[in-house]
Each structure stands twice: as structure tokens, then as C-alpha cells.
Automatic annotation (TrEMBL):
The keyword Transport applies. Keywords: Membrane, Repeat, Transmembrane, Transmembrane helix, Transport. It comes from Henosepilachna vigintioctopunctata. The lineage of its organism: Eukaryota, Metazoa, Ecdysozoa, Arthropoda, Hexapoda. This is Mitochondrial dicarboxylate carrier. The keyword Transmembrane helix applies.
Length: 157
């Protein structure tokens, strides 16, 4: 049961990440600029759309980290959320509305760097080899940029 709860919360966060800012806002903003966009313009757009997605994804990220770290706590301090919805509801009920948005700066900065690393670095021709190389490179850049935020977020939640 715990495993399926982790998978559900990851899917919520991934879906938000994928649909909301990577393909939704980013593409609309990029298309609204006339002519070819410069690298700095793409970085700016990616950063803004990453911030929007990170802010929206804060709830899921906070509960996900708590559920993963629960096993490390002594039995009497474990939260034992049944699932993601239960986790969000209990945080709201037990700790208040503002606590739901704790970690916003960390989640948002992570999303900004991740989106910049994934979206603004695609400057290759359109074929299989370059898709593979660009995906690998974008993933490596995104991981490098977000690692400090991930560690800080895990420790502070």
C-alpha cells in the first residue's frame, strides 16, 4: 500500500510538471515571441514557467518527501499518511493552511532550474541521434542544477 501511495504522488507531481509548465505555458510563451528566440529569452521563459509549475507542485512535493522520510522517524513520530490526499488533508487539519505551502521557495527554485536545464538547452538538428544526445545532456544539466535544491528540500521538510 505504501508503494502505491508513493507512485500516486509521483504521478501527480510528474503530470503537473509535464502538462502544466513544460508543454503548456512554455510553448505558449515561446510561440508568442515573434522571430527566433535567443538563448537568454528561452532561459527566461523556462525559468518563469518552471516557477509557476514549482509553486503549483509544492503540495505534492512536500507530502512526497514526508512519505519517503517517514520510515526514518521513530515509530511514535511517524505521520503514517494513508495516501497523498490523506497527507495533504492532515497537514491542513493538523498544521494549518500556511504549512501546506512550506517549502515553496525550494520546490520553486528546483522547478526553475529543472525547466531551464530541460527546455532551454535544446539546440540540435531533428534526428534520432541528436534527440538522444540532447535528452541525455538536458537531463544531466537539469540534475546538476537541481541537486542542491533537492537535498535542501529533503532535509528541511
Amino acid at each position: 500500500m505504501r508503494h502505491s501511495s508513493f507512485r500516486r504522488i509521483e504521478k501527480v507531481y510528474e503530470t503537473n510538471d509535464l502538462l502544466y509548465h513544460k508543454f503548456g505555458i512554455y510553448e505558449v510563451a515561446k510561440q508568442s515571441i515573434q522571430g527566433e528566440s535567443s538563448f537568454l529569452t528561452k532561459v527566461g521563459i523556462a525559468g518563469l514557467t518552471g516557477a509557476a509549475g514549482g509553486f503549483v507542485g509544492t503540495l505534492a512535493d512536500m507530502v512526497n518527501v514526508r512519505m519517503q522520510n517517514d520510515i526514518k522517524l521513530p515509530l511514535e513520530k511517524r505521520r503514517n499518511y494513508k495516501n497523498a490526499i490523506d497527507g495533504i488533508w492532515r497537514v491542513y487539519k493538523e498544521e494549518g493552511l500556511l504549512r501546506l505551502w512550506s517549502g515553496t521557495s525550494t520546490a520553486t527554485s528546483r522547478a526553475i532550474f529543472m525547466t531551464i536545464g530541460q527546455l532551454s538547452t535544446k539546440y540540435f538538428e531533428d534526428n534520432i541521434l541528436t534527440h538522444f544526445v540532447s535528452s541525455l545532456t538536458a537531463g544531466a544539466i537539469a540534475t546538476t542544477l537541481t541537486q542542491p535544491s533537492d537535498v535542501f528540500g529533503s532535509v528541511s521538510t
